[in-house]
Amino acid sequence: MPLFNKKFESKPIPLRQNRCNIGIPAVAEDLDDFRQISLNLGNKELRFADGIWMHSTRKGDVDDMLRLKKKFRVLEEENNMSNLKMEFMLDLLAEQASELNELKPREKSTFENVKK
C-alpha cells in the first residue's frame, strides 16, 4: 500500500488562452498629450517640459527654451573640446621648445670643437 495517495499530487494547470495578448490590438495613446502639460494659475501659465516647470505666455516659448538649451549643451561640448585641443597643443609646443633648448648648447659646443 502506497504511503501517499493521489490526493497529495498536484493537479495539471489549465492553459491560459490570452496570456500574451496575441491578436489583441495595442492601446494607441497619444504621448504628445502627456509631454505637453500646462497649468493655469490665474494670470500665470506654467508648462512642464524636459522635467521642469517653465513660466511661459505661449506654447512656442517652451519649445524655444528647449531648443536653446540643447544648442547651449552642444556649444558647451564644442568649447570644452576646443579647450582640450588648445591645452594639448600647448603641451606639445612646450615639449618641443624644451627639446630645442637642450640641443642648442650641444650644437654650440660641437661647433667650437670644430673651430679648434
UniProtKB/TrEMBL annotation:
UniProt-listed InterPro entries: Chibby_fam
Pfam families, A to Z: Chibby
Superkingdom, natural source: Eukaryota
Entry protein name: GL23797
UniProt source species: Drosophila persimilis
Gene name of this polypeptide: Dper\GL23797
